UniProtKB/TrEMBL annotation:
This is histidine kinase. It is a multi-pass membrane protein. SMART domains: HATPase_c (SM00387). It comes from Enterococcus gilvus ATCC BAA-350. Gene3D superfamilies: Histidine kinase-like ATPase, C-terminal domain (3.30.565.10).
Length: 329
């Protein structure tokens, strides 16, 4: 009954015009005082034709409605469009083409979302690998019974650093507006980061040289500090009894260490996600996320990070800042 009502409603104009048409014929015949016999015969013939048309049309309408209702119970995909009823009008054809475009876009968005989710799970696995190192070291200290407060404090500090790293990772991927550009003092930023790692400088007997640091840059304080933390902490990790030198000149911040260096074949890939190089694999100190996230953040800040290194002679990291606030989308 519901389909019949819908069918009649959709064709209300046709049936309405039929009634109006025969009403006008009857009125015309009446005004001319003509015979109604041929009029009644014509009415019966057209009623028969209209009835046949209505039965056939309702049958086709009902089949089409069944197909649409069946599709409505499924997760509609582009492949399911093959089961759509054949378009009988230009409007139906246009609707189906529009639906196909929408479904194709939906599928593309779903694929992109799945790829992002997979990438995030892979990154999370890398991060778990990295955070296990200080956790295992802390557990070993506790099991040995030799509870050295300084050693325990250092491992807890590393754990906190890695937790902050994954937090920044989530912010970078989920919050695209988490940037506040302002004029920053390079000296103040550098000293903030260096102070944070003062214990490690002392513990490893590393000397620190802060050279020309006067000047300002346009950047985001939180993300700039994050980049410097990754670069400076890498210098600390891979430098034994050496020197870390930091200087700033002409919109370029340079962090130079005298550590073990990076092999020439590893240099082109140091910013790849998950790539640790021979140093990271041999010493089990890296997950390959730090420099990758730093590079991602630097691009959004409008900066460039360049790395030059030589095995057993040290590494130089140069951060080149833009002269103006970068356009952020």
């Amino acid at each position: 009954m519901r389909r019949l009502k819908a069918f009649l409603f959709e064709r209300r104009v046709l049936y309405g015009m039929y009634v109006v048409f025969w009403g006008l014929i009857y009125l015309t015949t009446f005004l001319h005082d003509a015979s109604f016999v041929p009029i009644w015969d014509s009415l019966l013939f057209t009623l028969f034709v209209l009835a046949v048309y209505s039965i056939v049309s309702f049958y086709r309408f009902s089949r089409k409605q069944q197909q649409l209702e069946l599709l409505a119970t499924k997760d509609l995909q582009v492949s399911n469009l093959l089961f759509l009823p054949k378009a009988e009008t230009l409007a139906e054809e246009t609707y189906q083409q529009t639906l196909q475009v929408v479904l194709e876009k939906k599928n593309q968005q779903q694929e992109e979302l799945q790829q992002k989710q997979k990438a995030m799970m892979d990154d999370f696995g890398l991060w778990l690998h990295q955070i296990k190192t200080p956790v295992a070291a802390l557990d070993l200290v506790i099991q040995s019974g030799q509870l050295d407060p300084r050693t325990m404090k250092n491992e807890v500090f590393k754990i906190n650093e890695y937790l902050q790293m994954i937090l920044n990772y989530m912010r970078q991927h989920l919050d695209q507006t988490d940037f506040v550009f302002q004029q920053l003092s390079i000296e103040a930023i550098v000293k903030t980061v260096v102070k944070k790692y003062a214990t490690f400088f002392s513990q490893k007997n590393l000397s620190l040289q802060l050279q020309q640091l006067e000047g300002t840059v346009y950047s985001d304080q939180k993300w700039l500090i994050f980049i410097l933390e990754q670069v400076i902490f890498n210098g600390i990790k891979y430098t034994e009894n050496g020197t870390i030198t930091i200087s700033f000149m002409k919109n370029q911040l340079t962090i130079q260490d005298t550590g073990i260096g990076i092999r020439s074949e590893d240099l082109p890939r140091v910013f790849e996600k998950g790539y640790t190089g021979i140093n990271g694999r041999e010493q089990q100190r890296a997950s390959g996320l730090g420099l990758y996230l730093s590079q991602q953040a630097a691009e959004k800040l409008g900066c460039r990070i360049l790395i030059d290194s030589e095995v057993n002679r040290g590494t130089t990291v140069t951060i080149i800042f833009p002269e103006e606030i970068p356009a952020f989308e």
